[in-house]
Amino acid sequence: MIPAVAARSGGDFRPRRLRRKLFGAAFGVACFVATSIGVVVLFIMIRSVVVQLSDVPIFEFLYKLTGRFGSIDPDRSGYKAGIWGTVWLLSLVIFLAIPVGVGAAVFLEEYSAPNRLRRFIQTNIANLAGVPSIVYGILGLALFARAFGLKRLALGPTLWTGSLTLGLLVLPVIVITTQEALRTVPASLRQGALALGGSRWQVIRDHVLPCALPGIMTGTILAISRAIGETAPLLMVGAAASIPLVPRSPFDRYTALPVEIYHYAKEADPGFKPVASGGILILLAILFLMNSVAIVLRNRRAASNRG
Amino acid sequence: MNPEPRVGGDAETAPRTQSQSSPTGDVSALKTSPAGDSAEAIAPPRSTDAVLETHNLSVYYNTLLALREITIAIPRNRITALIGPSGCGKSTLLRCFNRMNDLIPGARSEGNLWFEGVDIAASSTDPVTLRRRIGMVFQRPNPFPKTIYQNVAWGARINGYQGDMDELVERSLRRAALWDEVKGKLRESGLELSGGQQQRLCIARTLAVEPEVILMDEPCSALDPVSTARVEDLMDDLKDEYTIVIVTHNMQQARRVSDMTACLMPDEALADGHRTGVLAEFSATDRLFTNPKDPRTEAYITGRIG
Q1: In A, which residues are within 8 Å of B133 by CB distance?
Q2: What number of CA atoms fall less than 13 Å from residue B129's CA on the CB side?
Q3: ipTM value of the model?
Q4: Do B144 and A193 touch (CB under 8 A)?
Q5: Is there a single domain that holds both residue A13 and residue A102?
Q6: Residue A74 structural domain
Q7: Which CATH number fits the domain that encloses residue A222?
Q8: For chain B, how are helix, strand and coil distributed in percent, rounded to 5?
Q9: pTM of this prediction?
Q10: Are residues A23 and A78 in the same domain?
């Protein structure tokens, strides 16, 4: 017999309501602190940069920086070459890495059989995502800049070399996040489309990719944003410290914003300090702008998925 | 309803009228069948009005036998219900007919399976072509996250429909008894509709590719009684032009809508709790419900099993 009455009056249960409530509240506070750390750090970072610029009209100063090339005179130095170099790199990386990364993810998720080969590829891609960026720099130097000593194929310290290297760097991240986005597409959607006589390609093109697009974009935005800030691999593959020219084609020499910032920041002349700080603000502004545009695009896409 | 020539190449190789007069064609088709049991691979005598036929069809999921030796003939322009307790393989059998089981890793079948005399399971049979001719409506309404218009038009467009798309969309929605409710909002999302409307939208998009058979996998189990009644009325309308196979848990529904009923039963449970489905009885619905021959069927329909 089950002692029903005993259970109602407490019995084997010890609810410990107060304890549970306190634990719940403490957990919530801990999560809030964790969130705040990120925001506070970002705030301190921007503040410490802005402090360097406290005695100049900040927007005017930044605007001036965007119009000048590098120079030995801090009052005549700026980031014109770096900004254009970064814009070029960004466009080329998007053009190179997104089709390859999304293609690889579609193959792994939609076409390949779940066998040992796929697991092998999958493990390697996951490992690649964790490789330090300087290693990609060495790879880019050997593979693209020098082409293992084959002079005809060597790209030298050009935009191609830089963007191919950065493209390789972000590729694993794009593949992994795209795969995750593809996995969130409900099976019922695929089945419904296949049951109407859609071929695999038609189903992927018209249903799976549009449905996964917001997720793919989120991952890609994060990956590309990382690439823009990368300095180490670009130093490795020969981005110029500072050059007085705007690249006209992918075969031109270039410099990039973070590379220029790095060089200004290690100058002995204290006059370069505000220049370096200004560069950081410009870089942050570009990142912020890019992320905002991408997020707006993504949200618009997500809205059209719902309706 | 269907003035355009059939797209499916398989139909041309074995038209309905010739399938009886050219048995050699069927035999050669059988030889390409992956069925391991060659002794069983004889063309069974087909009645002219059977659209889908199986002969000793067994289905495995990896090493697990899900269905054992099902032999059944689905008659043309009739509604055939598949009933039976959970886990007896009703949906598995349904998904064999349009090769949706191909999508499940480890699923394979033995025995024979024909659609209009064409070996469904043969590797030479293109599942994409097959699925246009054998449509499917799923348990949960799964409209595409697109407009109502695009939901209906997509299947026709990707299958190369050349006619007037607006006209086809209207005709399909009318046929699915949904036109009057959605005609003013064709550009709105299919997901905005109620569950019952979504399911009729799914039926409309299936009709838009002009199939010959419609497979329905518990199409009303996620719907309220009013929506269920509408879908059932619709099925009754559609059977003049289509052959319908419906899986249902609802015995009243099978009784109301179907002409023929197949009762599947789990065989004795295996040691690990998995069960193998077998065909207990297949006959006219009236007879099966009033005078079941198989004791298991009787036990099931009177509520003693399941």
Answers
A1: 197
A2: 17
A3: 0.80
A4: yes
A5: no
A6: 58-306
A7: 1.10.3720.10
A8: 40, 25, 40
A9: 0.79
A10: no
